[in-house]
Design brief:
2 copies of one chain form a homodimer. By secondary structure, chain A is α/β, with parallel strands linked by helices. The first copy, chain A, contains 11 helices and 11 strands. Chain A is 45% helix and 17% strand. Chain A has an 11-stranded mixed β-sheet, sandwiched between helices. The longest helix of chain A is centred in the last third of the chain and has 26 residues. The first copy, chain A, is globular, with a radius of gyration of 20 Å. The first copy, chain A, starts with a strand and ends in a 5-residue tail after the last helix.
Chain lengths: 328, 328
């Protein structure tokens, strides 16, 4: 049996939406059971008496913008308790759609890094031009600054994730830089490039530029947390702007509106291709336990997929595999 | 009379394309004259005898991937000579569509920074959701690493550019970070934020995230060169991917193709809105002279606009205004 802890509070869409995901997932996956943390007045009417779902009452909610110390003070919050359930090995994974900052602080403080991991990294799967392929990028925001050694560690963890969870047989690995030649970029990028080249890192292909990351040819891309966060958010922002402009183009006049009626199936396919919700959110790789962070505005489909990522990570024994990677 | 130096070689599209832009611009702007550097065997048949256009023969071309020292050795290259014409004050501005690295090295080495400028910054105007508004972002790649003081200097130069060339009356200024609260981001971002807050920097609004930069509400955004380069290229890459997906959506089947015939005017408008070519390329702000770098694959329309940016910068006396900004 796989035991997952779920932080039911603190998401933008409210506990009802997350409860739908948990109920559906439990029904379809008899091998998974849930401990759901949150206000029992809200949760019991939604979840009481359901098979393999347990509710644990908590009194606090971690706010979206929380400082690490403030997180530690909220020991009776749904997020703290959910992470603690993994720390105390009552659950194997934790899923939350609450504060990203709180979740990263909480998971790194309570679960601690796996031995040999220099820094945990937040890992996101980006949709690409190839509908069957995601680009795994880390760190997208757990850290600000990272060393070359951190980037090499991210490369190892990202490779394990791509291989074991996304089933890419031989993942290619790239350092994100401002040019493809060796020597381009900041010191830590140059250092990571050199280390991976010298050690013949499996699948290492050199630098890639931000222009290429969505072309469907990259499996794993490593970067410092600050640069990765900019990459993630500018990709989201540009895609959101383009979607608004597409809508505006079709709404221009009666003729273009008729055009939409004809073109709709093509654009539905496009929407499915670009749908980041199918990847369920971001994963904190490198801590002692499976920790998945759904988008703050996850709908029940996105949160269902976040749960699914956690289940697949537990099944694939990702934490143990990262623990033994130092021996590779 | 405004004298502009043009590097006619080293672009992807060849000197013929650039010559078209120069000819058209000279015809439409009697106040501008050109010195065109490049292989006279190619250039004379295109430009000889044209009013206010002079050809200066050069024998070398700076390759796309050039190291700074290698640039300095190519003293008879079209790019070196064009920049030198500004250094020696025979021209007031230089425009090139050749190697970006070579152009940045050459312009910073030959023209040197304006007194008081800690670092020159490559500045790009990004199209936004608001068709009448561009976001001015710097540095997008002249540097790797920058200090807080550099970012404040970028903010001053970007403000002057937005005000004098883009005619924004009171430009808003933001630091690019991984969260909007004060204290978010890397040390230099936190430092720049603090300095601009303490000095009541005109228009300073705090941090912005990469997700928001294209929403049409930001006039000037400052960032380190490495992060800015990632922002620029991921915006370009995501927009390119979305454009491919739009094309694919319309080509799905006969029905969607008919849809395109109806929707076409809306999408033409969208293309115009998103057209980065209207901004003509990137500007190196902070050196003693106007230096505009067109895209390597500039067509004659894009290069025409790059020339136009140079002319507007000379007319607005941007270099003098940056020189006196330390007294603000």
């Amino acid at each position: 049996m796989i035991e997952l802890a779920v932080d039911m509070m603190g998401s933008d869409k409210g506990p009802e939406t997350l409860a739908q995901s948990v109920l559906k997932y439990a029904k379809e996956h008899p091998e998974v059971s849930f401990t759901c943390f949150g206000d029992e007045k809200v949760l019991l009417p939604l979840l009481q008496g359901k098979e393999r779902i347990r509710v644990v009452h908590t009194t606090e909610i971690v706010p979206m913008e929380v400082k690490p110390l403030d997180f530690l003070r909220r020991r009776d919050s749904s997020m703290y308790k959910a992470i603690e359930a993994v720390q105390e090995e009552r659950c194997q994974g934790v899923v939350s759609a609450g504060s990203t900052g709180g979740f990263i602080s909480g998971a790194t403080i309570l679960l601690r890094n796996i031995e040999g991991v220099t820094r945990a990294g937040l890992c996101a799967a980006f949709p690409t031009l190839d509908p069957r392929k995601a680009a795994v990028i880390l760190d997208v925001g757990a850290n600000n600054v990272n060393t070359g050694a951190d980037l090499v560690c991210f490369a190892k963890m990202g490779t394990i994730y791509a291989r074991e969870v996304l089933h890419v047989a031989r993942p290619t690995v790239y350092t994100l830089s401002n040019g493809i030649e060796e020597g381009k970029g900041t010191d830590e990028v140059v250092d990571a490039y050199r280390q991976m080249k010298e050690t013949d890192f499996p699948g290492f292909m050199g630098n890639t530029e931000a222009r290429e990351v969505l072309d469907g040819k990259h499996d794993v891309i490593v970067t410092t947390g600050f640069a990765g966060n900019i990459l993630l958010k500018s990709t989201e922002g540009t895609a959101a702007m383009m979607n608004k402009l597409i809508k505006k183009a079709f709404l221009k006049n009666l003729k273009t509106k008729i055009g939409y009626l004809f073109a709709k199936p093509g654009f539905q396919e496009m929407r499915e291709n670009m749908d980041y919700k199918k990847y369920g959110g971001a994963i904190l790789l490198g801590v002692n336990g499976v920790a998945v962070k759904g988008h703050g505005n996850s709908d029940s489909y996105a949160f269902y997929n976040a749960i699914d990522v956690a289940r697949r990570m537990v099944e694939a024994r990702i934490v143990e595999k990262i623990g033994s990677m130092q021996n590779d």
